Amino acid sequence: MSLAIRFWTLVVNMLCIPMHVINAVGLYKMYKRVFPMVLRSFSVSYNQKMHERKAELFRSLSEFTKPGGKLTILEIGCGTGTNFQFYPPGCKVICTDPNPHFQKYLEKSMKQNDQLTFDRFVVTSGEDMASVGDESVDVVVCTLVLCTVRDIPQTLREVHRILRPGGAFFFLEHVVADSSTWAYFFQHVLQPAWYYFGDGCKFVGLRGMYKRLFPFLAYNITFSYNDKMHKLKRELFRNLARFKNANGTLRLLEIGCGSGANFRFYPNGCTVICTDPNPYMEPYLRMSMDVNKHLSYEEILVLSGEDLREVQDESVDVVVCTLVLCSVNNVENVLQEARRVLRNGGALYFLEHVVSDPSTWTYFCQYVFEPLWYLLGDGCMVTRATWKNLEAAGFAELHLKHIEAPEVSLMIRPHIMGYSIK
Question: Which Pfam family, an example, fits this chain (predicted)?
């Protein structure tokens, strides 16, 4: 079946080329306006078929009410509000969804379910619920949502953060079928088309499998990239020692450290904190640590750049971020986290590929091939104007220049490099 799956998946991918192009030029965003209407129609049928299952799932919600208080529920990806009918009367509901076009349909559901109190609607993804306080809700609900988020572990970390001790997470999700079934075959073959029509819905774990392979690829690619970028990296990091603290030491945090390709450029004796959202990078990271004994290593944290809560405010002298802002979910949040953990007078060093000038063929290729690049590059986006985010990030000083990286792929040739001072 494996060979058949690969063949038919290729066929469906070829048939989806128009959808890839539509997505590449930005027209797919128009579908996000229509998707709430499509989902509303679908959810009526789904709720009828799943009514008994949902009633069974949510029957114990009231058990998580705080003594003497009102039950507070936060729903991730609330969509059109199809779960409201199952919530106990009098509970308070916080609604979140990354698609703002759901609000109109959500308000209709709110009126139909006036037995509930609706606190607010927050336009945000499950991976980043910064506007919701720690330990502030009794229950988090998540139904048919984890299939669409970019980072399931990060979403679950956010759930854990906002739940009070003793609170509960209720979920209902479709998953990949047993590999011996025809359902498994069709899930894999039709995934490319389903992804677009389902607004990013994934029912197979191929990308999760690729995350295990990606560190191996990245480790080998970085040798070539470092050779080509050696002079530019030396130039970028040459004044790192300027930001030593009052004790004469340098504490450096690297976001998305990957396989440790930057370690050789750091000054002797500095202390490095490594962060990366992919836990499978660690074996390659430790290989680089063994080679770069001129540094001391504090810890390895499996964290995304948007959520560095395990790092204290104003606790590091330098933050380094190279070839990372292309793949994060929210560039603005990463930069705000970098500002938070930097001491006053500390610096953020960056080296990032960016979108090309619109008048160039590079720009054309970046937009056309970005969907494929995104998949092969573990979420890498080649059409980001990251310099605009840095300009708006609120640093006291910004030293930035645009460069053309030598001998690298046309898709990532335009770069920016420099540093910002808090």
Answer: Methyltransf_11
